[in-house]
Write a structure and sequence with these properties.
With 488 residues, the protein is an all-beta fold. The chain has a five-stranded antiparallel beta sheet with strand order 5-4-3-2-37, with no helix packed on it. A five-stranded mixed beta sheet has the order 34-42-41-36-38, with no helix packed on it. It has a four-stranded antiparallel beta sheet with strand order 1-32-31-30. It binds copper (II) ion (CU).
């Protein structure tokens, strides 16, 4: 029942050929997987902290597990602080930066409060190492890596339970927060505001966030220059007050600078979640959202995962606050601008659920925390139809280190012609939020019997510093297994 041992046979006929298939693993997560991050060694970091369980918080029981998808083994990780609803992002050096988390569950006197502490998780030692504190507490902060490897973290609740307006900047070179303190805007961006790095270095606040109304005035989406502090409105987002736990994705390829925002709801009004997709092209001077095709089901708690064939797999979700799971999945094709029905995860995936791309081209789905306070520990694996569609190409050779603007030789084997090559950033996802998710196209200039010459963008804002999964995909849209490369 270990999915990685299953040999996929070619699909002759039947639903799986076009819709893929799901497997629920017999081994369950040992922790409440509220956060999931793919590490550069292929393991998956599952962070619970106190896991939205006040009893565990009172007992000081904070949990993290590292899952090895190849062996199926889980390894417990000592967890020094309550990383329940922390922020996280992959750093240039392959460590995962973790900032903020839970200082207190609500009492008669106060609501949720955020912690100031921050750590890096080192995948080579499976340990958290403390770095200097943030300037304020943050519970539900964003985290976006900039082109130079620095990280901007915004929003969430501070140590007193108020919305934090502090702009926190982690400097990649020093490994320290806020030295010097970055330009401040004194603006509250909300909880897990989705902040996507654009090619000009600005952040795009997509309007996707967590809990209730959009706190951004005006149209609910913005362009934010982190150096000057200048913020501009971006029009066109529909249902801006019903984008709670929608999901925004920088569509593949990252060079196109197009973002899609899928679904959402509002846990405070508890309206039915919507099926609204809005699309925006951020490559021009005055970008505006335009309506996209409706999702095939109304949902919040949306998970959307970029796949190596250039499509976005959308799965899981619910209709209301921690209730009414929606068993529906679809494939969004950014070129055709269509959704196609896919097989559905048999496990409900609502609040505190996530999905991410594994290096072998499968998709992991994990977590679910319904309103009764329980947590679903089952682990689901999705096999996209591309893994049932012929012999996979392979990557046989590539340099480990890629400089910006370089050309690279990639050795491949394939039964049919290779169509594309791309770098996909490893996920670090929670609450329908992974603003760093991206797929960078590697234009193929020469294909000499499988010896590809590809070019990497010269712009670090298109491919921020760090580790990436290199995939090649053939003309039948069948991807290779990924090979890890480091950019910058
Ligand atoms: Cu949460």
């Amino acid at each position: 029942d270990d999915y990685s041992q299953v040999e996929h046979s070619n699909c002759a006929a039947g639903d799986a050929c076009t819709k893929g298939s799901w497997q629920v693993l017999s081994s369950q997560s040992p922790v409440r997987a509220i956060h999931a991050a793919l590490l550069k060694n292929g393991n998956v970091l599952l962070i619970a902290g106190s896991g939205n369980d006040p009893d565990q918080f009172a007992a000081g029981t904070f949990k993290t597990s590292v899952w090895n998808p190849t062996t199926g083994a889980f390894a417990a990780v000592p967890t020094p602080d309550d990383f329940f609803c922390t922020g996280h992002v992959q750093l240039a050096n392959g460590q995962l930066l973790v900032m903020g988390g839970n200082k207190a569950y609500p009492t008669a006197d106060h609501g949720y409060e955020g912690i100031k502490s921050s750590y890096v998780f080192d995948p080579t030692t499976n340990q958290y190492v403390r770095v200097n504190d943030l300037n304020t507490g943050h519970w539900y902060p964003s985290a976006t890596e900039l082109g130079n490897g620095d990280v901007i973290s915004l929003g969430g609740l501070d140590e007193n339970g108020n919305g934090s307006v502090e702009v926190e900047r982690f400097y990649s070179a020093s490994g320290q927060w806020n030295n010097p303190r970055p330009t401040q805007t004194y603006r509250f961006w909300g909880l897990y505001p989705s902040m996507i790095l654009l090619q000009d270095g600005r952040l795009f606040y997509t309007g996707s966030h967590v809990f209730g109304n959009n706190v951004s005035d005006g149209p609910g989406a913005n362009l934010y220059n982190v150096d000057t502090g200048q913020v501009a409105d971006v029009p066109g987002l529909r249902l801006k007050e019903e984008r709670d736990q929608s999901m925004s994705v920088l569509l593949p390829p990252a060079q196109a600078q197009r973002v899609a925002t899928f679904g959402g709801g509002n846990i405070e009004t508890n309206v039915d979640a919507n099926n609204t997709t809005d699309l925006i092209d951020l490559s021009g001077a005055n970008p505006a959202y335009v309506p996209g095709p409706n999702l095939l089901a109304n949902k919040m708690y949306v998970s959307a995962v970029i796949l190596p064939d250039g499509k976005v797999f959308e799965t899981g979700g619910g209709l209301h606050n921690r209730a009414d799971p929606v068993y529906e999945a679809s494939m969004y094709d950014p070129v055709a601008n269509t959704f196609t029905v896919m097989a559905t995860d048999p496990v409900p995936r609502t609040y505190h659920s996530s999905a991410l791309l594994l290096p072998d081209g499968h998709v992991l789905a994990i977590g679910n925390n319904p309103g009764d306070g329980s947590f679903d520990m089952r682990v689901s694996i999705y096999t996209p139809p591309y893994l049932l569609n012929g012999v996979r190409p392979t990557v046989t050779a590539a340099a480990a280190q890629w400089a910006y603007g370089s050309t690279q030789t990639v050795g491949t084997t394939s039964n049919v012609a290779i169509k594309s090559a791309q770098l996909i950033r490893p996920a670090a996802v929670t609450h329908s939020s992974d603003p760093n998710q991206r797929s960078v196209d590697l234009p193929i200039t020469v294909n000499n019997n499988g010896q590809l010459t590809v070019s990497l963008t010269a712009n670090p804002n298109i491919a921020p510093l760090g580790d990436y999964m290199l995939f090649v995909t053939d003309i039948n849209n069948v991807p290779s297994v990924a090979r890890w490369v480091h950019v910058g």
